[in-house]
């Protein structure tokens, strides 16, 4: 296996294009750059394939396969009594921080989320400010990620569904998550 260093933005782009849990960086790049080629893990012989490449940013360890920890998220959020938090923005940030806590290595996948004119997540506030005049970016507590917060509750629910799906929650887990986050809007 060979290692290369890449910039953070390229790492996040590759991570955001993951199609299934455990997909290697090599398979993602092969799919994007060489459509129609056979993934290395489906080849008949390791000698027939290119050597695997571990992608690292200068301050990160090699990419590890991400596992969905939806039940841990749901259990922790269930104990938070979110309904006593009156401001949806505070509730929204708490939910995202718990998801981040349990999906730290995979959370970069949310960087690919965006709307028609706005980027929803970034690793810095300025990136989100550049995508709109009233995005009101806030830091996801306990993380290096930022999220736009100037959305109505229905949009926050839709974004939360997308975050959960991107991180591997199944349909039932997504529904449970939304019921915990905003039962008054279901």
UniProtKB/TrEMBL annotation:
Q: Which UniProt keywords apply?
A: Cytoplasm, DNA replication inhibitor, DNA-binding
Q: Which Gene3D superfamilies match?
A: Met repressor-like (1.10.1220.10), Replication modulator SeqA, C-terminal DNA-binding domain (1.20.1380.10)
Start and end of every Negative modulator of initiation of replication SeqA N-terminal domain?
1-32
Q: Which locations, inside or outside the cell, does it occupy?
A: Cytoplasm
Identify the residues that the record assigns to the Replication modulator SeqA C-terminal DNA-binding domain, covering every copy: 85-177
Protein role: Negative regulator of replication initiation, which contributes to regulation of DNA replication and ensures that replication initiation occurs exactly once per chromosome per cell cycle. Binds to pairs of hemimethylated GATC sequences in the oriC region, thus preventing assembly of replication proteins and re-initiation at newly replicated origins. Repression is relieved when the region becomes fully methylated.
Entry's family note: Belongs to the SeqA family.
- What is the protein's name according to its record? Negative modulator of initiation of replication
Q: Which organism is it from?
A: Paraglaciecola algarum
């Amino acid at each position: 296996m060979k290692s290369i260093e890449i910039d953070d933005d390229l790492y996040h782009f590759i991570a955001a294009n993951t199609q299934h849990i455990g997909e290697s960086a090599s398979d993602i790049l092969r799919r994007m750059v060489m459509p129609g080629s056979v993934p290395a893990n489906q080849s008949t012989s390791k000698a027939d394939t290119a050597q695997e490449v571990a992608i690292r940013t200068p301050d990160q360890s090699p990419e590890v396969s991400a596992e969905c920890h939806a039940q841990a998220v749901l259990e922790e959020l269930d104990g938070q009594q979110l309904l006593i938090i009156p401001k949806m923005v505070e509730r929204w940030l708490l939910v995202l921080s718990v998801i981040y806590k349990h999906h730290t290595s995979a959370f970069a996948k949310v960087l690919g989320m965006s709307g028609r004119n706005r980027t929803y997540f970034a690793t810095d506030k300025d990136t989100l400010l550049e995508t709109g005049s009233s995005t009101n970016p806030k830091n996801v507590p306990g993380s290096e990620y930022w999220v736009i917060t100037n959305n109505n509750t229905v949009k926050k629910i839709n974004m939360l569904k997308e975050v959960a799906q991107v991180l591997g929650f199944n349909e039932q887990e997504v529904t449970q998550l939304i019921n915990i986050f905003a039962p008054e809007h279901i």
